[in-house]
Amino acid sequence: MKKNKLNILDCTLRDGGYYNNWDFSKDLIEDYLKAMSASKIEYVELGFRFFKKDMYLGPCAYTTSSFLKTLNIPKNLKIGIMINATDIVSNNLSKSEINKNFFEFSKKKEISFIRFACHLSEVGQVIPICNSLNKKGILTAINLMQISEIGDDEIEKISKLVSKSKLDIFYFADSLGNLEPQNIKHISNLIRKNWKKDIGFHAHDNMSRALINSVAAFNSGINWIDSTVTGMGRGAGNIQTELALLQFSKYLKKNSDISLLLKLIKQRFNPMKIKYGWGTNPYYYLAGQHKIHPTFIQSMLTELNLEPLEILSAINNLKKRDGKNFNKNLIEVSKNLYQGKTFGTWNPFRLIKGKDVLIIGSGPSSLEHSMAIENFIKKNKLFVIALNTQKTINEKLIDLRVSCHTLRIMSDINIFKKITQPLVLPLDRLPPNQKEKFKKLKIFNYGLEVKPGKFTFGEKSSITPNSLTIVYALSIANSGKAKKIFVSGLDGYPMGNPRRHEMDETLKLYLSTKKRADLISITPSRYKIKSSSVYA
Questions:
Q1: pLDDT reported for residue 513
Q2: CB burial class (10 A; 0-12, 13-18, 19+) of residue 137?
Q3: What are the distances in angstroms from CA 341 to CA 203, 330, 337?
Q4: How many angstroms separate the CA atoms of 328 and 70, rounded?
Q5: What is the mean pLDDT of residues 504-508?
Q6: What pLDDT score does 274 carry?
Q7: How far is CA 291 from CA 148, 205, 206, 296, in A?
Q8: Read out DSSP for 399-458?
Q9: Distances from the Cα of 249 to the Cα of 243, 449, 460, angstroms
């Protein structure tokens, strides 16, 4: 097949913004643009143009004309933005509202191209907008998401539909990161039956196939390839720009200079990669295998800070459910889900009053000392609270299980159905469709409200500084008026780990709280709390 001109579209700050809320400094952006210019990359997708404005997001979330005017943009670069079709379609915006929120361009025309990220059902609604933008001299592209989940007939049908439009480029995205080279060729051939203009490919690197799939795409006649610096992007990320430039060098401009790019990587992007941790790993690989949306993995690693065993358990349950569609409700844990007053319906006082409580944490020491813990429970006649679904001791010794992370709650629901102990949840906080799934389980509804710097133990709900499950368990034990609270498996993260700092501050706040029970670790712990020995 004769090779067409290849265009590498770099979308680092747009796709990479999923890790830092698109909050890139002006200095970094301008250094990045200089590196792109020197590398002779012509098309740079600088960010999104989001509709939602009820929280802080950085400049590359909106990429406004006013912001673009503040940048020194090299003349050889064409700057573009991405718009989520859902922002337009689901909000039922009028034409004037669409123009006001998305398409107010300055006379200088800083925007050269616009891509629309579309689900299959949204393509038809975006085409008229593309036709209108085309008249204004703006290059338009539709990026069809989750191509692996769309049947051949539908691909042919949608490519026939776009062929009747003025669209310039028809992109497809390997959103779940599970395609193989032969799949790329097959999809390309299906599109080519009706679509005769440019085709683009957006690879995800969940299974370390981004580069090889992009080569397969180019060999199949696809002439637009997305890339990001160091692969920075949602989930496992994308094909690395620095590798794409080397791989496709003979099809690109000969005088490309990547020295500025490599310097930028060393000074700015490598430190960010260490901080945020993008790139493929076994969890993303499993997500690709089982068609699980990579943002679930990103959230488990960065927002929920789950342990390896917990992540594997969540993956195992997500693959049995509809894990290919990311559900933000499952990961909204502290900032939104637990804001505002709440009222539970269950009072732990009757069960716990005057008893010593043992909370079994998730650290390795709970398993390592499990036999001694069982003996300690029997000897001291403890009331036992286990976190989530862990089974490090004989289940007959466990009195309650507690859980408050929605992703864990929903991914572990099939396990909870097989467990005999009552389960304590902040049930009122769950969306209605999730509550329905717990109807047949024995649930104690204990309320949770999150307020930084607060520990208040109420009869049927508590206020805590965060929504960590161990903290929820502490609030239940204190609400029940426990005499003492023992804990196992509160091993602690190493110094320097941000999760260590969060827990240090939480425990410091707890220990300064009046009318709280003593907290004593019976297994090794890095935290500054009282300790005893499970063997004493």
A1: 93
A2: exposed
A3: 43, 20, 11
A4: 33
A5: 93
A6: 92
A7: 9, 13, 10, 11
A8: -EEE---HHHHHHTHHHHTT--S-EEE-GGGS-HHHHGGGTTS-EEE-EEEE-TT--EE-
A9: 10, 55, 65
3-class DSSP state of 112: coil
The pTM assigned to this predicted structure is 0.69
Which phi and psi angles does 84 have, rounded to 5°?
-75, 120
Matching residue, tokens 């998305």: 102
Query: Measured in Å, how far apart are the chain's first and last C-alpha atoms?
Result: 76
Query: Do strands 43-48 and 400-402 pair parallel, antiparallel, or not at all (unpaired)?
Result: unpaired
Q: Are strands 461-464 and 456-457 parallel, antiparallel or unpaired?
A: antiparallel
Closest residue by Cα to residue 43 from 125, 185, 141: 141
| Orientation angle between helical segments 282-289 and 294-302, nearest 10 degrees | 150
Contacts of residue 454, Cβ cutoff 8 Å, sequence gap at least 6: 463, 464, 465
Pull the structure tokens for residue 320.
């049995």
* Single-letter amino acid, residue 503: M
Residue with structure tokens 């732990």? 348
pLDDT bracket for residue 106 (50, 70, 90): low
Cα 290 to Cα 87, 183, 317, distances in angstroms: 28, 16, 11
Q: Strand 169-173 relative to strand 443-445: parallel, antiparallel, unpaired?
A: unpaired
Using CA atoms, how far apart are residues 9 and 25, in angstroms rounded to an integer?
A: 21
